[in-house]
Amino acid sequence: MPGIIGDAPTDELRRTYARRHVAGRIGVYAVAILVALGCAGPFLWSAITAFKQNRDLYNPANNPFVYNRPPTPDHMTYLFTDTAFGTFAWNTLWVGVLVVLITLVLGLPAAYALARLDRPWSGPLGIAIFLVYLVPPSLLFLSLSRMVVGVGLQDSTWSLVLVYPTITIPVSIWLLMGFLKAIPRDIEEQAMVDGHSRFGAIVRAVLPLVFPGIVAVVVFAFTLTASEFIYALAFVAPTDSMTVSTGVPTQLVRGDVFFWQSLQAATVLVALPIAFVFNLFLDRFVSGFTAGAVKG
Amino acid sequence: MSTETAAPTDAAKPSSPPYRRRIADRDGALAWIFLLPSVVYIVALVAVPFVLAIAFAASDVTAGDPSFDFVGLTNFARVLDDPVFWRSLGNTFVFTGISMVLIVVFGKVLANILVADFRGKWIVRFCVLLPWTTPVALSSISWLWLLDSIYSPIDWLLRAVGLLGPGENMYWLGEPGLAMTSVITVHVWRLTPLAAVIMMAGLVAIPRDIEEAARVDGAGYWRRMFEVTVPMVMPVIAVAALFGAIFTFTDMAVVRVLTRGGPNDATQVLSSWAFYRGIEGGDVAQGAAVALFLFPLLLAAAVAILRAVRRIEVR
Questions:
Q1: Residues 129-168 of B with CB under 8 A from A
Q2: What is the pLDDT at residue B23?
Q3: Last residue of a domain, one of A33, A52, A74
Q4: B298 in a domain, yes or no?
């Protein structure tokens, strides 16, 4: 049949496909650009605002998207010289690092036990830990704030180090279980046959292989910690102990006066590095998420 | 399973020196040692406060008078009598319902884009991740400025194309209907990337040969989309939807930064109302009672999530 039909229709068909392909490519690029603008739009607007002079900013007749007067770095410097922004960023960083460490130290063995040691109760316990992930801060912050007062950590940044792992541990156990289940059991069995104890097998054979999962957990736990708002607002009142997420809004808004340019500068300065790091590990994160769900 | 894994190990050992049964080699004990820290921690800082929240809700504890007296269901009765509570409950459902639908639809579109191959993908992914990875308090401030009552660039655009008269403003956060739309928009904007990442995981997991088989069998794009891709991603979509729902349901940061529940409680939700009552108003008992209404609803969501996850496991 194809031979009888000849070349002309085949050519036409090929051209149709080629045209359709080009149209598809243009469509993909158009949607991609639209999506990127939609997501990053508010941050672009923040970035423009951050360098505007007051006289430019507070004139409703000015085109808000361009600099009607030369841009100024004053508000960016104000952020570092006249506010505790540096302290907030430092607090966010060390709280994040400690929480990530606690999460890994507690979560990794727990995930291993649930994924590998096949106790009869590991199924129900895994589900119970997953449920903990669903108990929201808005339900617990009242009683937790009383408990924080009880252990004498009120108004201390350490209260956040104590409490944040409640958010990060359950989800990390879940993610790590996925990564661990993707590693063949033979690996440890081989190491144990070679004379390592179970513990030695874990450290020498399993940990290196689950490293991508650990990276995913580090990034995810840090993001969750940096974004947390309710506990940070409820537990910590003194300016010096605040994190970025509560410090920036309270320090740069005085009554009805908003220091808009500095606020936007702070937003952009915090947003870009976190998204950058997360983007580096997005693929690992995605593969961990499916592994946890599909091979569960 | 454990006997199967242990058997070959033991079998390989008899000739070697007396097999030392350390604690670390007994699966049962090791499992407990590994799990105990996490379990203790979670019981101490999730289960205990949860029980405490229930106790608070049945007491008359306030910030000024922390002594505990049992008052039974009085707090719940007071909550149910409060019109603001009913308003918050209604708002919570409206916010969650609308956001969830939009998050799923946009999340699917975004996921399709993110798995496609094109130049400059890295920068697009970076932009897409921004709303989710930025601390919510800060991104809400960005929006607060975007929706400013006088200097909003959206108003400027509307004025420029003539939809608004000179000197007129929309008051995005000042009119009840618009304030609601704004809060929902920010929620959707913030959580769509998370839903997209979860769904991306689902899309990546679909074996390519199934789609190719359908293509060879002559199924067109839409047919493949609705009869192959969507049914296979359905459980993952359900997970993304419910995560989105839970995050919207329990979030108070967006509401707090953008509108503080106003105008006139038009955007008040349960979690923000509990915060005002319990922390700022100092009425711990009342706040706990309000927050407890979140739980049955979340439990229902959790059961739904687990069902969806189980369906993935079965596959």
A1: 129-139, 141-143, 145-146, 150-151, 153, 156, 167
A2: 52
A3: A74
A4: yes
